[in-house]
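Hey, I'm writing a tutorial for new members on how sequence and structure tokens pair up, and I'd like a real worked example in the thread rather than a made-up one. If someone can provide the structure for the chain below, I'll link this post from the tutorial.
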Amino acid sequence: MSKIRFDGQVVVITGAGRGLGAAYARLIAARGGSVVVHDAGVAGDGSGFDPSIADAVVAEITAAGGQAAACYDNLEEQAAGAGIVEFAVARFGRLDALIHNAGLVVFANLEQSDPVLWRRMLAIGVDAPFHLARAAVLHMRRQGYGRIVLTTSGRAMRIEDCVPGLIAYSTAKMAQVGLMVGLAAELQGSGIEVNAISPVAATRVLRRHAPELLPELVAPAVAFLASPACDRSGVVIDAAGGRFAAGFWQHGEAVDLGPAPVPPEGFAELWRRVAGRDGAAKAG
């Protein structure tokens, strides 16, 4: 396989001031891409604003001879998605890839998840990727090429990987899988591929000490998905500590109860076969 490069390409990466996003930005810039480093520089709870966070990554990239520019839009605002895309096009003349990495983790149980918190989590995790993708696709369609990489989480896909307090977070992350599928179906044959990454890395989001889970170990998969080498859509890549796997919904054994309706008790008798051997629906 020829070397994956981004020469002449422009890549927008949200949440690129720290952790995973910064690792993606450094790798793509080192391979010739012009990178828009988006980061509002907020604290772990989403408060505050510090443009120096994005500026520092841009300075690092340019010092190494790469091309980068910073933007700081607040993704809670509806106009932010279009604003980030327009900034990229105005600064570098085109847009080839969008990597939506930005997110917010707020631990709150069901009773604590009031309408204000719920709306905020959905604004960042659902509305923002939709508006970013909508604006990006307008440009990508014109050039007949584009790559979109969304971010989901195993926390949203498997009960055993989730913890209490992540209802809003899990909802937002799973919504990006639905967005990926919808976009991929609509954009078939357009030259635009849409996929997702489900990363685990030692950032301020991960609430445990795991120095072996370097963000740089996730970055190769994201760079591939954002590159011309990626030639298919609708794939979720699980990535952690240099290990990668594709995630799929898995259908269990089909149980045929015949053409006539059965009583609920009839379905109950076959529940374990329908839902899986342990009685719980499984997702791969």
